[in-house]
Amino acid sequence: MPAPGEACNCVLLAERNPALTEGVRGLLAAVFDAVVMVADETSLMESAARLRPALAVVNLSLAPGGAPGWLARLRARCPDLRIVVLSAYDEPAVRELAMAAGGAFVLSRAIATDLLPAVEAVLGGSRYGSPPRADPTLPA
């Protein structure tokens, strides 16, 4: 655990889907000293405040129906935290919410290709968004 006031070179991964968690954890482990995995909003908030990670990678569906609220609470509690939002939904409103919360939006179907570029961009102070699906009427 970092000293008080000091951030760790770790990432918080907030995801409820165990299968997705392991794949994302593997990608993030190549970049960070530690990947701390949480599966609910309460654990995310407590871990973010206590560990002061470099980044949080959060699935928008972590708190069904309450995404705008919990993202806003996370931002208020940890204003310097950089956030990459994962989502299965490719709608403009979802993209805007994610970009406003942390500066990066990664479609779940594009994690393998887009997650690490998003992490690099956000840590460098830039924004990142997965390219929109070519035909939004087709399933991902």
List keywords for this structure.
single chain; about 140 residues; alpha/beta; Rossmann fold; six-stranded parallel sheet; 6 strands
Question: How are the SSEs placed, and which strands pair?
Answer:
Elements: E1 8-14, H1 18-29, E2 34-38, H2 41-51, E3 53-59, H3 67-77, E4 82-87, H4 92-102, E5 103-107, H5 111-123, E6 128-129
Parallel strand pairs: 1-2, 1-3, 3-4, 4-5, 5-6
Helix pairs in contact: 2-3
Textual characterization of the structure:
The longest helix is centred in the last third of the chain and has 13 residues. The chain has 140 residues and is of the alpha/beta class. The protein has a 6-stranded parallel sheet with strand order 2-1-3-4-5-6. It is built from 5 helices and 6 strands, in the order βαβαβαβαβαβ.
Summarize the structure.
With 140 residues, the protein is α/β, with parallel strands linked by helices. The chain is built from five helices and six strands. It is 41% helix and 23% strand.
CATH architecture: 3-Layer(aba) Sandwich
Number of domains: 1
Rg, Cα atoms, Å = 14 Å
Helix count, DSSP H or I runs of 4 or more residues? 5
Number of strands: 6
N- and C-termini, Cα separation: 39 Å
> Taking all residues together, what is the mean pLDDT?
85
The rough form would be described as globular
- Main sheet specs: 6 strands, parallel
